Amino acid sequence: MKANTIKLLKHQRGLGMLQWALVIAVAGFFILFAFKVIPLYAENTYVESALRSLETGSEKLEQMTDAEIKSKLNNFYMINNVRSEGPTRNIKVVRESEKAVVTVDYETRVPLFWNIDLVVSFQNHLDSSRPGQCCKPPATPKTK
Question: Mind telling me which residue stretches traverse the membrane in this protein (predicted)?
Fold first, then answer.
């Protein structure tokens, strides 16, 4: 009985060097991916906060000029250290009867490694007629 236990213990040695290298490489890839992606999503939360600050301001969104809206958003970006060019360049204001829609749709490209880039696209919409549904684009009906 004792000989069987010793024999079984010899075969249960754990991972070899090649398996450990593979585990470390996979973990390293996911850590690198997280370090590249998390700041992009954190920055987008500041863009969403900037849009929400427009609806909670003292002045109604419909009464503000396009220049005032862009100025307020750019000031918010500067204060909160939004560094990407996408949110500052892609501010669009569309005015319709009795409502205004502010869109900040942009893509951010980050080099992952070698010649492989990671592209993340964000769509942020503020409709003054639906301020509670801030920052998500309106759902489009599906056509068959």
Answer: 20-42
Burial 3-31 (b: 16+ CB within 10 A, else e): eeeeeeeeeeeeeeeeeeeeeeeeeeeee
Question: Which residues in 96-130 are b (16+ Cβ under 10 Å) and which e?
Answer: eeeebbbbbebebeeeeeeeeeeeeebebbbbbee
Residue 63 lies in a domain: yes
User: Does the structure show a pLDDT above 60 at 144?
Assistant: no
d(CA 124, CA 52): 11
3-state secondary structure of 22: helix
Lookup: tokens for 132: 């509670």
Q: Is residue 3 part of a domain?
A: no
* 90 within some domain: yes
Measured in degrees and rounded to the nearest 5, phi and psi for residue 59 equal -100, 140
